[in-house]
């Protein structure tokens, strides 16, 4: 396949899955600007390393893997930066509250370790099949199934705990 054809396929893949890729990046960083930066870096990395793509049939999972790795790299770099506490953020805020349709689920997802959060996001928010998730995160299918089961169990426990606290 020529480089031009490969680039056209990559452009088509990025265009078709731009919302899903953004959602995936956002699920890691929880910040719109950072998620956009990650998507942009991922697109750059994809074009720079397009010759490493072995098969054009796996271009979607290959690009998702780049997004996941770029997100994880970003998070590793952010650990070196001091995070504001909630009191400092309230002083900096403009007084408007964020509106979340299900804040308990949002919090429970935030508390999941990244390996479990990514499986949940890829399966239920990006609607990938188990085999596709395995390809994206470079794990075997049984590992993905186990992580998915464990993540759902952790979410269920966390959601039940929060419900009990409210009552």
Automatic annotation (TrEMBL):
Which SUPFAM superfamilies does the record cross-reference, listed alphabetically?
Sigma2 domain of RNA polymerase sigma factors, Sigma3 and sigma4 domains of RNA polymerase sigma factors
Sorted alphabetically, which Pfam families does this protein's record hold? Answer: Sigma70_r2, Sigma70_r4_2
- What GO MF annotations does this protein's record show? DNA binding; sigma factor activity
Keyword check for Amino-acid biosynthesis, yes or no.
no
User: Which residue intervals define the domain RNA polymerase sigma factor 70 region 4 type in the entry?
Assistant: 105-155
Q: Which UniProt keywords apply?
A: Sigma factor, Transcription, Transcription regulation
The answer to whether UniProt assigns keyword Transcription to this entry is: yes
Alphabetical list of InterPro entries matching this protein:
RNA_pol_sigma-70-like, RNA_pol_sigma-70_dom, RNA_pol_sigma70_r2, RNA_pol_sigma70_r4_t2, RNA_pol_sigma_r2, RNA_pol_sigma_r3/r4-like, WH-like_DNA-bd_sf
Per UniProt, residues of the RNA polymerase sigma-70 region domain are: 14-80
Q: What are its GO biological-process terms? A: DNA-templated transcription initiation
Family per similarity comment: Belongs to the sigma-70 factor family. ECF subfamily.
What PANTHER family does this protein map onto? RNA POLYMERASE ECF-TYPE SIGMA FACTO, RNA POLYMERASE SIGMA FACTOR SIGV
Matching entries from NCBIfam families are given as: sigma70-ECF
Query: Protein name, please?
Result: Sigma-70 family RNA polymerase sigma factor
